[in-house]
Specification:
The chain has one helix at about 35, and strands at about 1-5, 10, 20, 45, 60-65, 65-75, 80-85, 100-105, 120-125, 125-130, 135-145, 155-160, 170-175, 175-180, 190-195, 210-215, 220-225, 230-235, 250-255, 255-260, 265-270, 285-295, 305-310, 315-320. The chain is an all-beta fold. The strands form seven sheets. Strands 1-2-3-4 form a four-stranded antiparallel beta sheet, with no helix packed on it. Pfam families: RCC1, RCC1_2.
């Protein structure tokens, strides 16, 4: 899994190991040396000087513009240990008003509440949403547009989102909104925050059964159980799904672009592609109303397999496992 901030990227492996790349100056990549920060490769993260969290299993990861939030398993294998690191002047770290920068991972106190685990974690430029095993959702950061419910303010520590009439199982975050989802077959969703790009007013009243969900800065994406991609919101750079899109098995949503994996083994990209993140073929920096194939199972060495995709702030990632 890939989580990306403004200039840093975190990579979480299936085994729960955490790696980083990018600009480490904010502290969002953990404790680093000068030599490490000059290497343009993924490196294993150091969360503290000598703490057990360096070797603990990480379950979830999210990023704001200059901060990272992770959830690790406790001694019983439950996802109860929430840490943040990096910089956040508007509550992004979730550690109280006094702590606005920390390169070492700092543990949240008294969160999640006793008896609960964190089952999903989402972040965007300035805020974070955590979903708990009891179906509650909590938010913190710059949520002055109502991204974490009322009151609309800067929140420096996790606050429960009130008024949700269903059990939340997933959350996704855009720049000025959050979207909470019930169970995949429940049809339930709730969008909090600004209605910019008609993100609230153009949302469907009920959700079809889905297998994955995601958000860009201005869109919500729902990958239906049957492989069809449903989306709404901003489309000035071609962010919405192009016509005649084939059936998909995976999606990864970047800041203003989409990476998708088809049933036939192609990796597609569309949307805002100014920085090469949608491949070389763009018109006015966009891939609009169509898609580029940026990788394909047909064009990799025998015995190799495309096993994952990721997307960040104008960055795209394809994981290829070699035999």
């Amino acid at each position: 899994m890939v989580a990306a901030g403004g200039n840093h990227t975190l990579l979480l492996t299936e085994g729960g190991q955490l790696w980083w790349s990018g600009d480490a100056t904010s502290g969002a990549c953990g404790l680093t040396s000068t030599a490490e920060t000059q290497e343009p490769v993924f490196q294993k993260i150091q969360l503290s000087k000598d703490g057990g969290e360096n070797n603990a299993t990480t379950a979830l990861v999210a990023a704001t513009w200059e901060a990272s939030v992770i959830v690790q398993n406790d001694g019983e294998g439950k996802a109860t240990k929430v840490y943040s690191f990096g910089a956040g002047l508007k509550g992004e770290l979730g550690l109280g008003e006094l702590l606005v920068r920390s390169p070492s991972a700092t543990l949240f106190k008294e969160f999640p509440p006793t008896g609960t685990e964190v089952v999903d974690l989402a972040g965007c430029m300035g805020h974070v949403i955590a979903v708990l095993s009891n179906g509650e959702a909590y938010g913190w950061g710059n949520v002055r547009k109502g991204q974490a419910g009322s009151p609309e303010a800067v929140i420096h520590s996790p606050r429960k989102i009130e008024g949700v009439d269903f059990k939340v199982t997933r959350a996704v975050c855009g720049k000025d909104f959050s979207c909470l989802f019930g169970a995949p077959d429940s049809g339930k969703l709730l969008i909090l925050g600004s209605d910019k790009w008609s993100i609230k007013s153009s949302a469907p009243e009920t959700m079809p059964e889905w297998q994955d969900v995601g958000a860009s800065w201005g869109n919500v994406y729902v990958l239906k159980k049957d492989g069809e991609l449903l989306a709404w919101g901003r489309d000035d750079h071609g962010q919405l799904p192009p016509p005649s899109l084939p059936k998909l098995s995976k999606i990864a949503i970047g800041s203003e672009h989409v990476i998708a994996f088809t049933d036939k083994g192609d990796v597609l990209a569309w949307g805002w592609g100014e920085h090469g993140n949608c491949g070389p073929q763009v018109e006015n920096n966009d891939v609009k109303g169509r898609w580029n194939v940026i990788a394909s199972s047909r064009f990799i060495p025998p015995g190799s397999k495309i096993t994952g995709i990721g997307a960040g702030c104008a960055t795209s990632w394809v994981t290829i496992t070699t035999g």
